[in-house]
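Q: Sequence in, structure out?
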Amino acid sequence: MKVFNTYADIPSKGRGAVLVIGNFDGVHRGHLALLEKGQAIAEKKGVPLGVLTFEPHPHRLFQPDTPPSRITPESVKAWRLELAGTDILFSLPFNWDFASRSAADFIQHVLIAGLDASHIVVGYDFRFGQLRKGVPADIEAAGLPVTIVEEIADEAGAAISSSRIRQALRHGKIEEANALLGWDWEIRGEVIKGDRRGHELGFPTANTALGDTLHPAYGVYAVRACVQGEDCWYQGAANIGIRPMFEVETAQLETHIFDFDEDIYGKTLRVQPVYYLRGEAKFDSLEALIAQMESDCAQARTLLAGV
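A: Exactly. Output:
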């Protein structure tokens, strides 16, 4: 997959694609329906499948003080889009200048002059341009064919959306979130040095910052973990949160990998929460904490044995 961070001076091989437009946070089952429609049109036309998306997520521009809400940070989003068959990714910087563009300007300068799109595919609720005044009919009026994909629902008939997945994750409903995504959600981050508190307690952890990734429900999870670049997945238990026992202010992910004793500082760790075990708690003593951690690990091993 070729990646461009601009719409200007795009080489000929990057022009003329069928463009699927959206934020694609989560690259969930609803997004996959758009990509599948775009792929079918692109194959019929004999042109590449392109995705036009924006970084950072508009939420960060318009609501900078809200908690991180990214289901998929930029690198993970690109990875999922490539797996879905995207040939060209146009990831455009979203800033106040871009947000202030009129719908007509976006159509003429980005879609037509910049990218020379051959066909546009969007979701049923797609709006664009300053104050979201632009609608798909405006694109068609400029001479570009547009295909609108209707709302995608789950097996119970409820709409699949990024906001619904965020809500599930924030409530520790991992299985529900994964079912809506169509893939196993994961957190990626560089393993950093911590205070070695876990090591002292007999449960060494690989610590990673959450960055702009959505913070799921704080607490303990049964997880699978993989050092990026390796093929194997390990089982483990992880705490996500602020560790109220030790009055830590910044939330992070601390993963205790079962039967593992390697130095992975500086490496990227992929962690997939599989089951939410319990919320964070403050214990009366270190002995009580250790006893609970032993129980958590035993429960995680039992649950993960069937995965």
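The longest helix spans residues 286-304.
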